[in-house]
Amino acid sequence: MTITIRNVVDAIRSSVHSIANTVDGLEFGSPDMKVRGIATTFMATQQVIEQALSLDVNLLISHETSYYSHRTIDGLLIGDPVYANKTKRVQYSGLVIYRHHDYCHSAQPDPIMIGLLQDLKLEACVEEMLPTAAILRMPGEMRADEVAEYVKSKLAIPYVRLAGDPHMICRRIGILVGYRGGIANAIPLYRDKGVDLIIAGEGPEWETPEYVRDSVNHGIPKALVSIGHAESEEPGMRYLAEQLRRAYPSLPVHFIASNPVFQVL
Amino acid sequence: MTITIRNVVDAIRSSVHSIANTVDGLEFGSPDMKVRGIATTFMATQQVIEQALSLDVNLLISHETSYYSHRTIDGLLIGDPVYANKTKRVQYSGLVIYRHHDYCHSAQPDPIMIGLLQDLKLEACVEEMLPTAAILRMPGEMRADEVAEYVKSKLAIPYVRLAGDPHMICRRIGILVGYRGGIANAIPLYRDKGVDLIIAGEGPEWETPEYVRDSVNHGIPKALVSIGHAESEEPGMRYLAEQLRRAYPSLPVHFIASNPVFQVL
């Protein structure tokens, strides 16, 4: 039986109502092509694209766009050699790249959150699953710096960044993936859900971290572990590969990881 | 002679045409109060406020707002204990807090950029001063990782994050302060101004860093040193204190630094 790009895209979007003005869609290729194999990834960087080609798949499902900004910025990439080379390489190869972002996060539960909880081995601690956050009740008594080390170890990442009181005992923890680490998402978790610590992907540096610092200085201990945008969303794209493997047992399905983009000096 | 809050605000805004919809303004206090002393800072955190009070100044000029988001988010802080405590403390103390952001960055040259260049001891290397960036021609042959270590040492900060090719020789360097490290500002510097490396405050993690990684993988070596939002703007607020000291020799003028908000684990 022939499986087309359209079939796979329809399947991964099937649980979500139509989203207006979505960033999701085909960046390269045609929906009528036959799928020979699938890879999922956080972002279709040049390294990821080369790895997808070497795995001989022709559909790459990427959470973020290939072109370095959430929405297209008019004129920005015209005449840019990195853009020109990357585009030429993908077009020549015949690889189809599909961005799966809004429909991914809108599924309930969000597979990006599920993948992260799985990798953290904290699924059993989930007390409440909100549309944009998970609230966990921790079983034992872990200090904030111990939570940070635990996350670092479970995700096998080279560093995390900790704000707030490193020695406070964390009984309730909130999780915010991707760029949801800003104050608009954080305050409702600290204040209304009573979390002691938030594990976040990325967020503006003087929003939640400075709120947490002020809170500590008002005698209300709080903490924040910032793990990185890609680091918070890669596990979910690995989880998506597992789902696709079950849905299409006749197709090879891979997850392609990336190395951390930054080194800390 | 009496110097009022209004006098000082008018003076620091005097070189810039009126800005519509500005975030700048008084967060606490009245413009007619007499100024007893001034402190400048990156952000009026609780620690900074206490230090300003212990220095017995009554005007705190802060680059970012006291309340954790660039613009007010409707309803977010209602019932929040950190907000309530901080507001009560400042109101009770009589401290005036003025946010100096848009008018600060719109001065040409931007004092935030001048302060950073001074602390980096790179003023003599400036080849071109753009409204939102500085372009430097480096005198010797410095590798990207050496630039990173140089910046870290000159700013006395505990860590920087490096993306791209650590071993490339950097002859031209671009500087972007604050939250200007995104792709819309970075590509014109790499592509049109031919910079090898950008020193940036903060920017989205999968924009410029991933562009730089792709560029390296296309054989066009580039690098990025991300130093932190506060770290890139504090020197400019110290520089503003120097300017105010010269303008108001009769007043005590202080700069209040902050410790880094994150620790790396």
Detailed description of the structure:
- Chains A, B: One of its GO terms (molecular function) is hydrolase activity.
- Chains A, B: A divalent metal cation binds at residues 63, 229, 233.
- The structure is a homodimer of 265-residue chains.
- Chain A contains 9 helices and 12 strands.
- Chain A has 265 residues and is α/β, with parallel strands linked by helices.
- The mean pLDDT of chain A is 97.
- In chain A, 49% of the residues are buried.
- Chain A folds into 2 domains: 5-106, Udp-n-acetylmuramoylalanyl-d-glutamate--2,6- Diaminopimelate Ligase, Chain: A, domain 1 (3-Layer(aba) Sandwich), CATH 3.40.1390.30; 111-230, NIF3 (NGG1p interacting factor 3)-like (Udp-n-acetylmuramoylalanyl-d-glutamate--2,6- Diaminopimelate Ligase, Chain: A, domain 1), CATH 3.40.1390.
- In chain A, helix 5 crosses helix 9 (229-247).
- The longest helix of chain A is centred in the last third of the chain and has 19 residues, at 229-247.
- A 6-stranded mixed beta sheet of chain A has the order 5-6-8-9-10-7. A 5-stranded mixed beta sheet of chain A has the order 1-4-3-2-11, with helices on both faces.
- The interface between A and B is large, with 59 and 59 residues.
Secondary structural class of chain A = alpha/beta
Q: In sequence order, what are the helices and strands of chain A, one letter per element?
A: HEEHEHEHHEEHEEHEHEHEE
| Assigned CATH superfamily of the largest domain in chain A | NIF3 (NGG1p interacting factor 3)-like
* Strand order in the sheet with the most strands of chain A: 5-6-8-9-10-7
Q: Would you state the CATH class of the largest domain in chain A?
A: Alpha Beta
Describe the sheet with the most strands of chain A.
Answer: 6 strands, mixed
Question: What is the total tally of β strands of chain A?
Answer: 12
Q: Catalogue the unreliable spans of chain A.
A: none
Could you tell me the radius of gyration of chain A in angstroms? 20 Å
Beta-strand fraction estimate of chain A: 15-25%
Tell me, briefly, the overall form of chain A: globular
Pair with the biggest interface? A-B, 59 and 59 residues
- Taken together, the total number of domains of chain A comes to 2
- CATH-defined topology of the largest domain in chain A: Udp-n-acetylmuramoylalanyl-d-glutamate--2,6- Diaminopimelate Ligase, Chain: A, domain 1
What is the multimeric organization of the chains shown?
homodimer
Q: Architecture of the largest domain in chain A, according to CATH?
A: 3-Layer(aba) Sandwich
What is the number of helices of chain A? 9
Mean pLDDT over all positions of chain A: 97
* N- to C-terminal distance of chain A: 52 Å
Helix content of chain A: 25-40%
